[in-house]
Specification:
It is a single chain. By secondary structure, the protein is an alpha/beta fold. Helix content is 41%, strand content 12%. The protein contains 18 helices and eleven strands. A five-stranded mixed β-sheet has the order 8-7-11-9-10, with helices on one face. Helix 2 runs parallel beside helix 6 (102-116) and helix 13 (338-352) runs antiparallel to helix 14. The protein is globular and about 80 Å long. 52% of the residues are buried. The protein binds flavin mononucleotide and iron/sulfur cluster (SF4). Iron/sulfur cluster binds next to helix 14 and helix 16. Residues 55-59, 61, 63, 83, 85-88, 171-172, 174-176, 209-211, 214, 403-405 line the site of flavin mononucleotide.
């Protein structure tokens, strides 16, 4: 790690890097020119597959494998949806790439469209990113003028158009089929899968949905090679046939109670503690960490005794979290209340649930009602098990909902209560001395709140 040289962030502070001239002066589009001359699309897919690149948008699905699901004999068109919705709390790495080095993003998009034979790419951009919008729009214009987009790119018999579609500030638009529905002009209600987008996606045509950082990695794999990419990260665990390993560079976002919040690059698998100390400058005000969200709010919490967990795709799962997610770390110092953490989390997910599935729509609301009651000093010890029962019943993992938003709502509840139960119990006993032992069924929660 000590001699690691960033690649994704290598150019972010360089002068005029956001312009075509600036990017090309640093070697930009060299890989695109070479790959289009030397490799057929299927070869590019094979290289990305061999690299072991896994999606950086949250689920960690192997990128080359996803591309290989596109039907080979389909008459087309095939679409690429670039997921730039980036609404996961604690996550801002896509923004850094798009604002600071938009042509790096464009080169990754063009190469990935070439590999998948996509003829149109839509960048689904979070609305609250106006600078990303301006930078990408001007990068796209420059690419058209330079023959890097449009008809017969670099003299090949392949054409590509790229459009930016600005979202309307809803978390659910980042879920890949919610994104597709939204692009089609409808309410962003996630679709039941299968069929998966690779077979039937945007406008019912084969579609790939990939995150901005995932696509940015593609250029570097093709430039530096598969072995370079696989030389960093965590290899598959020999006793786990389902672990494909976690390879390549990763952007870690660090926020919350640290001295130096920011977006940093390192190989996958760095221990959480090292990310906080080395990059985040340690916990602020000389305090200790009480807990850390390892990968965006929906991944849950690592407790202070779990901070040596490696931040690869498997590490946080082994520590009882949902996964690595986006590697957006939120550090909570020792003075921060877990009740406040859970209240904020439940508020977010209840607000963002799209409402299609009853367990998610009702469960996130009930959880919020209960946490509000606990916070207001009317909690009962029995509420903690009731909250866990809700959290254990909603989501794709128990199989009761269409999309993963409900899993994301559940994990902060499970981790906060299972890992910090004593704090919740103390709060309930202290703030509700008369009623904390009551365990009869609770009257309508809305009435309790009045
Ligand atoms: C509620 C919800 C929100 C999501 N938001 C995003 C997002 O903002 N950006 C993103 O890339 N992926 C997001 N995802 C994951 C996408 O559904 C999808 O897995 C990802 O875009 C695939 O790209 P990747 O394979 O390159 O990671 C979200 C998933 C869920 C369930
Ligand atoms: S799980 Fe929640 S957000 Fe996802 S489709 Fe169902 S109701 Fe909507």
């Amino acid at each position: 790690m000590s001699d690691y040289e960033p690649v994704l962030l290598a150019n972010v502070c360089k002068k005029d890097i956001h312009t075509l001239a600036g990017y090309q002066a640093c070697g930009g589009y060299r890989t695109l020119r070479r790959v289009l001359k030397e490799h057929a699309p299927a070869e590019v897919v094979a290289m990305v597959r061999a690299s072991g690149l896994r999606g950086r948008g949250g689920a960690g699905f192997p990128t080359g494998l996803k591309w290989s699901f596109l039907p080979a004999d389909h008459p087309g068109p095939t679409y690429m949806c670039v997921n730039a919705d980036e609404s996961e709390p604690g996550t801002f790495s896509n923004r850094v790439l798009m604002e600071s080095d938009p042509h790096q993003v464009m080169e990754g998009i063009i190469l990935s469209c070439y590999a998948t034979r996509a003829s149109t790419a839509y960048i689904y951009l979070r609305y609250e990113y106006p600078l990303s919008f301006r930078r990408l729009r001007s990068a796209i214009d420059e690419c058209y003028s330079a023959g890097l987009l449009g008809k017969n790119i670099l003299g090949r018999e392949w054409s590509l158009d790229v459009y930016i579609h600005r979202g309307a500030a809803a978390y659910i638009c980042g879920e890949e089929t919610g994104l597709i529905e939204s692009l089609e002009g409808k309410r962003a209600w996630p679709r039941i899968k299968p069929p998966f987008p690779a077979v039937e996606g945007l406008f019912r045509k084969p579609t790939v949905v990939n995150n901005v950082e995932t696509l940015a990695c593609v250029t570097h794999i093709l430039d530096r090679g598969v072995e370079w990419f696989r030389s960093m990260g965590t290899p598959p665990r020999p006793n786990d046939p389902r672990d494909p390993g976690s390879f390549g560079p990763k952007l870690y976002c660090v926020s919350g109670h640290v001295n130096r919040p920011g977006c940093y690059e390192a190989p996958l698998g760095l221990p959480c503690r090292e990310v906080i100390e080395r990059f985040g400058g340690g916990v602020w005000k000389g305090r200790k960490a009480k807990a850390v969200v390892p990968g965006g709010l929906s991944t849950g919490l690592l407790a202070a005794n779990e901070l040596d967990t490696p931040l690869d795709f498997e590490g946080p799962i082994r520590a009882g979290c949902l996964g690595l997610g986006t590697a957006g770390l939120i550090v909570l110092d020792e003075t921060y209340s877990m009740i406040d953490f859970l209240h904020n989390s439940c508020r977010f997910f209840a607000h963002e649930s799209c409402g299609q599935c009853t367990p998610c729509r009702e469960g996130t609301r009930w959880a919020l009602d209960m946490v509000e009651r606990i916070k207001a000093g009317r909690g009962r010890l029995a509420d903690l098990d009731l909250l866990l029962e809700i959290a254990d019943s909603i989501g794709i993992i128990p199989g009761t909902t269409i999309c993963g938003l409900a899993d994301g709502a559940a994990w902060p509840i499970k981790n906060a209560i299972r890992k910090f139960r004593e704090e919740f119990e103390d709060h309930i006993r202290r703030t509700n001395p008369q009623g904390y032992t009551v365990s009869e069924p609770v009257p309508a929660l809305a009435a309790m709140r009045a």
